[in-house]
Amino acid sequence: MRVEPAVRARAELGEGPTWDPTGERLIWVDILGGRVHDFHPGDGRRSVRVVEQHVGAAKPRAGGGLVLNLRDGVFVLDAPDGSDAPDGMSGHGFVGADLRPLHHDPVPGRRGNDAAVAPDGSLWVGTMRYDEGEGGGNLVRVAPDGSSRTVLSGVTVSNGLGWSPEGDRLYYIDTPTRRVDVFTFTPEGEAIDRRPLVETAESDGFPDGMTVDADGCLWVAFWEGGAVRRYTPDGRLDRTLRMPVSRPTACAFGGPGLRDLYVTSARVGLGPNEEPLAGSLLVLPDAGRGLPQPAFAG
């Protein structure tokens, strides 16, 4: 499979690609740069919005706008798209009125990280400490009405989340464990019976963000591993896709028929002349067949 730059950028920590079918756009974030990017592959339009704090994830809302997993909790954004940004870096700052707190949870030394929307429309958000201190993060479920409950405590770097096509399994990555775990996901929206599904080697790098395809296979980006790997529902590795960057961070299917695989990447820790495509949004055309992702029902 060929890998192409969809958006040439220099994101410090590109993350969280999400396909929004309503806007026919790929939403992704630069966590440390505090930016939310939009990319419309149909006509190449791009925009970027600047957030006043670090942004771990941005997901579409069913009623329009976005829901953001920020440093200080989960916020709703009703503002329109950002301005055109041909260089991938310009944009405009949010004014305070644009952001409304839904789950306000500021903890010194901690920020929001990856997030995903469950089949029932709830938002599942992860947190982590800036120093990646062991057990310093949580996984939290935020209901559409803003009520929340902690699903997991004592995680270190809460990362990839995904559900099986039938909605009866939740996949989850706490990156330093080098595992992908699986839960039984009940009709009531509870995650129970956590067990390891995939255990990776040190030489693979660290499992980071992930997505699930229409066949129920898991596509996992490997930080410091320079690859996206696909695993079957029983945890067997069946495909390795090499990336032109050492730090791919997450992946998602988008475009017509959800057949193109988009991969975010990071520049953090690299020199200015290392890995020219690091920090860009990459795409693997016609890589597979993704699952439609629900919007947050709030």
Summarize the structure.
The chain is mostly beta strands and 298 residues long. The chain contains no helices and 26 strands.
If you had to describe this structure to a student in words, what would you say it looks like?
The protein is mostly beta strands. Helix content is about 0%, strand content about 50%. It contains no helices and 26 strands. It has strands at about 5, 15-20, 25-30, 35-40, 45-50, 55-60, 65-70, 75, 85, 90-95, 100-105, 110-115, 125-130, 135-140, 150-155, 160-165, 170-175, 180-185, 190-200, 205-210, 220-225, 225-230, 235-240, 250-255, 260-265, 280-285. The strands form 6 sheets. Strands 2, 3, 4, 5, 9 and 10 form a 6-stranded mixed β-sheet that branches. Strands 1-26-25-24 form a 4-stranded antiparallel β-sheet, with no helix packed on it. Strands 6-7-8-11 form a 4-stranded antiparallel β-sheet, with no helix packed on it. A hairpin with a 3-residue loop joins β21 (about 220-225) and β22 (about 225-230). It is globular, with a radius of gyration of 17 Å. It starts with a strand and ends in a 14-residue tail after the last strand. The model is unreliable at about 80-95 (pLDDT under 50).
